[in-house]
Amino acid sequence: MASQFDSFDIAPGETYQLTFNEVGAFTYYCKYHTMMEGTITVISDNSADEQARTNYINVWSAESYLVFWAKHDLSSDSSISVYAQKKGSDMDDAGTIALWGANGFTIVDGSDHTDVGDSLSGSSDWNPYYIYLDSNKLGYNSLAYDPESDNSYAFVFRARGVEGSAEIGNVQVIRTQDTGFFFAKDNPNKLTYEIFPSLAVEMDYFAKNIGTEDNEFHFTPTLVAQGKEYMGEAFTITVEVLVNGEAFNDLTSVSDNGTYTYGIEMSPDDEAVITVRFLAPDYDAEKAEPAGNRKFDVKMDPVDTGSDEELREPVSATLFIKPSQFVLGEMSYDRAGVLEGDSLSITVKAWNEGNYASDVLMVVYAIDSTGDAYNTPDGVQRMTRIASTTEPVMAPKPVLESQGIYQTWYPITAVWEEAFIPGETTQDFTSVELYAMINPEPEQQDIDNGHKKQDEYLNQKDDNDAVGQIAVVKDKSSTPSFALGIVGMSVAALVAAAGASLRREEE
Description:
Layout: E1 24-29, E2 37-42, E3 48-53, E4 64-74, E5 79-86, E6 96-98, E7 107-109, E8 115-117, E9 123-132, E10 153-161, E11 164-175, E12 181-185, E13 192-194, E14 200-209, E15 215-219, E16 222-225, E17 236-243, E18 246-247, E19 252-256, E20 259-266, E21 271-279, E22 294-299, E23 303-304, E24 309-310, E25 317-321, E26 326-333, E27 337-339, E28 344-352, E29 357-376, E30 379-394, H1 397-402, E31 410-416, E32 429-438, H2 444-448, E33 465-473, H3 480-498
Parallel strand pairs: 13-25, 27-33
Antiparallel strand pairs: 1-2, 3-10, 4-9, 4-11, 5-6, 5-10, 7-8, 7-9, 12-14, 14-21, 15-20, 15-23, 16-22, 17-18, 17-21, 19-20, 22-25, 23-24, 26-28, 28-31, 29-30, 29-32, 32-33
């Protein structure tokens, strides 16, 4: 529409209609009665909503200021507000925080340090402004930067209203605290580390100088045993440090009865990756330490030496010595078949996937419908106990592998002193089913001999058994057919031995 318009003559009872498509004030008058005039003010039918956003900025501490310059010329119903937008959030998400009075923030005029309020309005030439980023007022919505979750923020300048113009420039976050460190575990999601005697684990930590002065970061890595007192040898703790990606060779250390406090000199914005290595001592069979099912809490005791303040302990990590975990594999014998009344050596492959174990009991049974009822990993079975033995010490499979030992299993042998055929049979020989269990529920004879049940990881015992078959020949067989039968028996026994049931077998 042009800035001028003419309705021409309007006859009595008629009307004139005009659509305005420009914002502004328009004066009109009657050409026949010039004193009759008026003004039509046209405003926008939709308010503008424009946003300018910075790149993501890491706000490392509460004692920081958001500083920016602004030039604006806004109508009375227009304003500019500021938001802190967490990475990955939209404007309407909970992760976007309005930096205004309701949340404990205010815009301050940098030229005279007077409070501006929740937003900028009116007109101003280039002028500095700042907002104190007090994260304590936000409760759980703290602006303190966590590098693991990458909760850095972009700052959004949002202009809303009818008419105006605005320019924003030189946006930066300025720290004001003299000293301070950010300290955290590099991977807060991993809290438990399995470890075995004579083996080691490593943990990484992250430290950053978030102050404005050179400062020294101190930490004292230690282990605190959970539960009963630890009676074994001390763990060996060593430290390696990278500062700004480079090996740091000026690490200081002070010993206090074998516990070392380390120091790292850091300039403002320096970042350090601290690798702490915990080496478990060798297993002491006499003390049975380090014992299975033990847990040790890792403590770092970080200190900001510039302010002489203890820092918050990072998320707690735990060293866990897994209890014993026994596995039985293939069953074999010292002969293909046995005469009733003779002895038979029964060997079962066994290994330990948990911590060291001493005096580990293995019992062998003959499947016997007239025998006693035993609870087994496969349910209740009727069996007769025929042999038992103990293995003095079983080392963890991971420890043996670390020592380059290929055979990580133990050949545990028990002797069946007098072989017999369970039940009745008219044949000269029969295949007897054998069943072996490691770490079974002790019977009275075992208790009398000083054996006790070993703890196993999560009480998992589904692979604590093995099965096999052996041909047992009647002791009264003396006919010529016996010679033929013994040949057939030998073949059958070999087949039975080769087909021994395996629950788990190590290659």
